[in-house]
Prior knowledge:
This is 52 kDa repressor of the inhibitor of the kinase-like. It comes from Paramuricea clavata. One of its GO terms (molecular function) is protein dimerization activity. By secondary structure, this protein is mostly helical. Helix content is 53%, strand content 6%. It has 19 helices and 4 strands. The strands form 2 sheets. Strands 1-2 form a two-stranded antiparallel ribbon. The radius of gyration is 29 Å and the shape is globular.
Amino acid sequence: MAIVLRFVDNLMNTREEFLGFIPCQKGLSGEALSEEISNFIKDIGQCMEDCCGQGYDGAGNMAGKLSGVAARTQRIYDKAMFTNCYVALLSALGAIESDTTNKPDVRYRAGGMKKVIKKFEFIVCLILVECCLKCTKPLTLQLQCASLDAGKAREISTLYFTINKLRSDIDETHEAFYQMAIDLAKEVKIEPTKKRMTGSQVHRENVPADSTSDYYKRAVTIPFLDQLLGQMQSHVMYGMPNKVVSDPDWKENFSRFLNKYKDDLPDLDFLECELWMWRLKFCNLTDHLPTSLEELFPYADRLSFPNILTAMRIFGTIPVTSCSCERSISTLRRLKTFMRSTMGEKRLKALVLLNIHHKIKLDVEKVIDRFALKHPRRMLLVDLLNRDDSTLEESKDDLP
């Protein structure tokens, strides 16, 4: 299991750094993994009491509400706010696709899927999902950035307004999508049809419609756009408003956020005065207002706004996704293949750290000196590349 630490450094840059892998020797249960994580954090000299956020994939042992790692950790350290990463769920598709067994149930399912994709209903859904998910590509790329903070993720409002515009102009939107579905159906020789109506709706959409186009608009297009808007509202657009100063309840919302981390604030008694000065500071600001957490850091002086600066660093530390951990797993596959499965844990961690943090320049001479002190031997280390044969013979004579 990969461990990545997210923090805001002294230059107010949000960073995510890989620390190492944890061998899951005690099992994969939520209790065992949470204990391994706590021990790892203690071994590197950090305190779990300072943890203000945690992020995992959507597996049950990690994100379970009762016995998952996130729930167990938050019961002990209540400041460790949990953020679920839905990107990891997409990796399950690769496992399904790579399953090439010849079991009968697999063949039956494949035959059923082949029958489904030949229906006009599948084509309508395919066109709708393709067009809408093309708009979400910028959001997907931004959510994979290591420097992305929760505030910036919530400020991605352009996509939300675009999807909301499609929902408002549902007649024009569906007409365009439906015409694309008609054209694709003609190429594969599939007739546009709709499902038959039933007396009561049980296992299928039974919406009343006069035409095939109206049926798919009410049964597919409208529910899909509503679901997409709802998910974006709950997972991306939630929380603080974009213009906090102009919101009448901004102070109450900010105080509610700080109530969870009040023990980390340097001077809680000065908070009310700080918020008052912070509001006046931006009310008198006529230039470009900051729109991200990185742009807001220079305005928070350490002496004038110590509590607000601490709150901003906590807010920047809260994880948005676990993509850095997923990239660390990719590094592991490059280093430890099936042919090198006997590599030790300590050597593996060292190689992974060297590979991931390749921009850090190492002093080769110090590495050699440290190796010689750690593993002393009765031999003379000879530079075979820079010495001639005569020097090599002299070195051999010096050996006991």
